[in-house]
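Work Package 4 report. The design task specified in the project plan requires that, given a folded chain encoded as structure tokens, an amino acid be chosen for each position. We show below one input record used in the internal validation round.
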């Protein structure tokens, strides 16, 4: 198997909130609908079985009106610590989000790992920008709170 670091987009963001507050924004469907995906995207969640092995079906609506059906499976969940999905439709990848307490906040470590270096390199530029936007949208949702 090819090295993970050569087929992954990894980034991190410090969010001024507790790991439990960040995790809440990652585990409540109504909140995920508000932040998931790159800037300009909205979401409709159809199925959200938040447990290891559970199914997650959603449609991402692009800013141009294009719909992108998505199917994922929750691989690992550790409350206030780790959230991992296997994305099954379209581009196959494993997304791991780790939450680490850091001072007065939480360091969110985001790693999206593709099956091959070749696959990742073909979309790396898009993925980098989209993941950065996704992390910012998560931070904005955490700041917004559960309202």
């Amino acid at each position: 198997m090819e090295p993970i670091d050569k087929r992954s987009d990894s980034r991190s963001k410090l969010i001024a909130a507790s790991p439990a507050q960040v995790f809440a924004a990652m585990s409540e469907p109504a909140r995920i609908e508000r932040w998931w995906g790159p800037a300009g995207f909205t979401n409709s969640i159809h199925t959200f079985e938040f447990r290891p092995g559970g199914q997650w079906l959603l449609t991402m609506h692009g800013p141009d009106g294009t719909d992108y059906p998505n199917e994922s499976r929750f691989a690992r969940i550790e409350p206030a610590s780790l959230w991992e999905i296997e994305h099954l439709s379209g581009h196959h990848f494993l997304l791991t989000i780790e939450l680490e307490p850091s001072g007065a906040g939480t360091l969110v470590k985001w790693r999206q790992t593709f099956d091959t270096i070749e696959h990742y390199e073909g979309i790396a530029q898009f993925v980098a920008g989209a993941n950065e936007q996704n992390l910012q949208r998560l931070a904005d949702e955490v700041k917004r709170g559960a309202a």
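Residues 16 and 105 are 4 Å apart (CA to CA). Validation will be extended to a larger panel in the next phase.
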